[in-house]
């Protein structure tokens, strides 16, 4: 290829147009930003039919996550990525399946950080697909970004990447996970839970859980947010805001006295609506949010929680 053409091609690929916004893509970044957005777009497409637990769409999503874990070199746990479970909700029996992957730690391999995000959503209601782009294809896509990051920069702790099922039906996947551990729960240093992290008009990402752990509070408070978005501690029940302590899968870790950080945005007009589509996320905010979560988790990994 002509060298000028090659250089032009590389320059062209360093920019991505999403929803009319031109986003500069840094090839030397923490993870592949283009793929982060692509994964979110795919998982929140109509093909996955809203990913409701027990549906064909959820099975497709499960297979997609497994395939991405495999391609990223994430290890299986007990020779499988799947953790099936059965539960009842409002008198109906469901078959769910968590997707779990392992990244072995370099020096604290017997200690774990569980990074989680639920992949289920509301499915189809009255003929309308609830695609759940922000809730919570955004969190699941970030799991893949973590896998990419740790491939470049191996963690000290062992990392469990957990894509939980049935969060929308009573946090069932995470409940089964914490009650079925093959090791003592004290070996989990912290749970970092991601649920709705891709859009905010105020450009604010909340970190909930710091009030329960001084070390986590110190780590988050010392993080310097970029001009593009802010990481704010709150929603712990002590600041006059809605208490998010039990609002997502981190609740089941908290009940086991496992320290947690929950990253999420405040509810928006498309929350649990069929309009929670990829076209309505804020790409620049999302990329910066995932960067911030990765860097804060990296500080946790390097610390003694």
Itemize the secondary structure elements and their pairings:
Elements: H1 3-13, E1 15-18, E2 21-24, H2 33-43, H3 56-71, E3 82-89, E4 92-103, E5 108-118, E6 123-125, E7 128-130, H4 133-152, E8 157-164, H5 172-179, E9 188-194, E10 204-208, H6 214-221, E11 230-233, H7 250-254, E12 260-264, H8 283-302
Parallel strand pairs: 5-8, 5-9, 9-12, 10-11
Antiparallel strand pairs: 1-2, 3-4, 4-8, 6-7, 10-12
Description:
- The protein has 305 residues and is an alpha/beta fold.
- It is 32% helix and 24% strand.
- It has 8 helices and 12 strands.
- The chain has helices spanning 3-13, 33-43, 56-71, 133-152, 172-179, 214-221, 250-254, 283-302; strands at 15-18, 21-24, 82-89, 92-103, 108-118, 123-125, 128-130, 157-164, 188-194, 204-208, 230-233, 260-264.
- The chain has an 8-stranded mixed β-sheet with strand order 3-4-8-5-9-12-10-11, sandwiched between helices. Strands 1-2 form a two-stranded antiparallel sheet.
- A hairpin with a 2-residue loop joins strand 1 (15-18) and strand 2.
- The longest helix is centred in the middle third of the chain and has 20 residues, at 133-152.
- Mean pLDDT is 92; it is low at 1-27.
Tally of separate helices: 8
Give the % helix: 25-40%
User: What is the chain-wise order of helices and strands?
Assistant: HEEHHEEEEEHEHEEHEHEH
Summed over residues and divided by their number, the pLDDT gives a mean of 92
Residue windows where pLDDT falls under 50 for at least 5 positions:
1-27
CA-atom Rg in angstroms: 19 Å
- For the secondary structure, the number of strands is 12
What share of the residues does DSSP label as strand, in percent?
15-25%
């Amino acid at each position: 290829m002509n060298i000028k053409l090659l250089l032009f091609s590389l320059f062209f690929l360093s920019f991505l147009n999403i929803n009319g916004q031109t986003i500069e893509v840094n090839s030397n970044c923490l993870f592949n930003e283009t793929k982060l957005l692509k994964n979110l777009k795919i998982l929140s497409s109509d093909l996955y039919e809203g990913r409701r637990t027990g549906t064909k769409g959820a099975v497709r999503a499960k297979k997609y996550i497994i395939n991405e874990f495999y391609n990223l070199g994430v290890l299986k746990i007990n020779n499988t990525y799947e953790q099936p479970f059965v539960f009842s909700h409002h008198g109906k029996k469901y078959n769910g399946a968590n997707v779990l992957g392992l990244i072995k730690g370099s020096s604290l391999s017997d200690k774990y950080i569980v990074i989680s995000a639920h992949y289920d959503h509301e499915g189809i209601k009255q003929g309308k697909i609830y695609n759940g782009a922000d809730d919570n294809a955004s969190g699941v896509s970030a799991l893949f970004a973590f896998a990419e990051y740790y491939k470049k920069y191996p963690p000290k702790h062992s990392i469990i990447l957990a894509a939980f099922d049935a969060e929308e039906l009573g946090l069932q996947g995470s409940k089964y996970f914490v009650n079925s551990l093959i090791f003592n729960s004290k070996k989990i240093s912290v749970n970092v839970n991601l649920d709705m992290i891709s859009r905010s008009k105020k450009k604010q990402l909340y970190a909930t859980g710091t009030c329960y752990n001084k070390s986590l509070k110190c780590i988050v408070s010392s993080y310097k947010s970029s001009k593009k978005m802010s990481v704010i501690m709150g929603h712990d029940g002590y600041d006059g805001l809605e208490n998010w302590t039990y609002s997502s899968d981190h609740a089941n870790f908290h009940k086991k006295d496992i320290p947690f950080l929950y990253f999420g945005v405040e509810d928006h007009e498309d929350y649990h609506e069929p309009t929670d589509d990829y076209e309505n996320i804020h790409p620049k905010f999302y990329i910066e949010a995932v960067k911030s979560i990765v860097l804060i988790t990296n500080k946790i990994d390097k610390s003694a929680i």
